[in-house]
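Notebook entry, structure prediction.
Reason for the run: the old model in the group folder had no record of what sequence produced it. Starting over properly, with the input documented here first.
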Amino acid sequence: MKRTLLFVLILSVVKLSFSQVTSPGSPPITDTSSKIFEKVDMEASFPGGEDSWRKFLVKNILKITSQALRTKIPSAIYSVTVKFIVEKDGSITIYETVSNPKNIYLEEKCSGMIQKSPKWQPAMQNHKIVKAFRLQPLTIVMD
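New structure, fully documented this time:
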């Protein structure tokens, strides 16, 4: 049986709507060094802009999907969403990864791909460099 592979990337990075994240019931954070912003004056950006980010994702998703075929992942549409933090130095920290239907292999590979990306230009809030959340949805169709 011939297996074909089709993948679709939802390439726009989803912008989130809250200004900062704190734990429920915790006091407000007054030190901006520990805040993680979801809404900022200037979003964090990938070096080279959205076109370069798209090329980075496509190149690396092709590697992931070819490896997934070898591991005999069942035919299905896999939606993997990676929520990550762009740190003040531009490095990436993975915050959360979810998929539907759940596939740990694809979650790990997609989060690893994003974490290994080159350093980003960090976000700015009130003319200061800040940590900020980003959300990247990916859809992979294994047929």
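Summary: The first helix runs from residue 49 to 70.
The old model has been moved to the deprecated folder.
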